[in-house]
Amino acid sequence: MCGICGYLEKNEIGDSETVHKMAETLHHRGPDYTGASTMHNAAFGHARLSIIDLSKAGNQPFFNEDKSLMLVCNGEIYNFHELREHLLEKGHRFISSSDSETIIHLYEEYGEQCAEKLHGMFAFALYDAKINKLLLCRDRIGKKPLFYSILPSGTLVFGSEIKAIQAYPEFKAEPDMVAIHYYLSFQSVPAPWCAFKGVKKLPPAHCLTFQHGTVTLHRYWSYDYNNQFKINSKNDEIELQEALIEQLKTAIRKRMVSDVPIGAFLSGGLDSSLVTALMATMCDQPIRTFSIGFEEKDHDETAYAKMVAERYGTRHTVFEVKPKLLDIIDKLVYHYNEPFADSSAIPTFYLAQMASEHVKVVLTGDAGDENFAGYSRYINGIPQNKFWGYSTWVSRYLNFCRFNVFNHPGEAWSSKLKRQFRLDSYKNMYFFRITHFNEQYQRSMYKPEMYQAIGNHYSIDFFLDKYDQFHSGGSLDRTLGVDMTMYMPDTLMVKTDIATMAHALEARCPMLDHQFVEFAAKIPANLKLKDNSIGKYILKRAAEKYLPHDVIYRKKMGFGVPYNHWLRSDKKIHNFTYDTILEKDNFLSQWLNMKYVRQMLERQQNNLNKNYQNLIWNLLMLELWHKRFIKNGGVQ
Question: For the whole model, what pTM was predicted?
Answer without folding.
Answer: 0.94
